[in-house]
Design a protein that fits this description.
By secondary structure, this protein is mainly beta. It contains one helix and 24 strands.
Amino acid sequence: MTENVAPTLSRRAPAGEPAPRPRPGLFAVLTFLLALPALPQCNFTPVFSDQFRSSILDLAIDGNDLWAATSYGVALYDRSVDPPRLVAAVAVPGTTHLLRLGNGVAYAGSGNSLAVLRKNGRALQLIRTVDAGAPVNDIAVTTLALFVATRNGLAQYTLDGSTLYVARGDSTVDVFTISPIVQHTGTIVAPSSVTAIHAHDGIVFASTAVQTYIFVAGNNVGSIPFSMTSLAPLAGDVSFAGSTDRTLRAIDFTIPGSPITLFRDDLPPSGGTINRVTSVATSGGRAYVGAGDIGIVDYDVSAFTAPFPMRSTAFAGATSIVS
């Protein structure tokens, strides 16, 4: 009897039997697999880029131009119409979260880069990007200089006239004069670590993670119970302020140690992931609030002038009042 075993490439026939031959089909398949090179992987080349959504992270106004940092890049709106109409947009590498205007151009902080842009007719043009070496935290523009704060250097800073205030991420705020030269003139000490700083009309607002301290002439005169992330003056000592929530506030700082909230409004939440006031800009009787995925909220503040209504109490037939 012959052995009923399928031949393999390594099997030897018993003594006295002819050597088995490999199956032609199996040999051909193995030859095919060994002879041909592996198929190359598909090469993907980017041919188009567009923003999936606009997350408004910062705002700036120049005449009728409303500039916005949209995370994806920079967008330009025409605010001569109400609500403002989108005119142009341009992509900027990185996450664009900061925008400042000055000297006829726009400076955007995007990741580790400082981007320089300008308006060209009805279009936006990205002139160049400069590697800052670390994430850009803040930008201050003056007539003769551009100050850029990064994680490797300054934490955050702001300008008030010819004075530069610098927060370093600890409890101190350095004060510099920038005219005619940059010179350190003093230090403000806050009760806890300062995460953001704003200044207006001689008042310095040093924000921590939970509240904001108010300084006048280097002295701590009071505080407000929220972290101020944005500040936009309206008239006199009245300013709009944003925090790490969806609330827009109008506050009277006439007496810095006793600020009075004149107005507050909670913005409607969106289905996105960024639901907070990120920037406020005021001009021409309008207040524009950038609020992440909520978008840009437009307020008519033309009638919001002194005397400001504080509160009302119903009386029956009141005819006279004295204080």
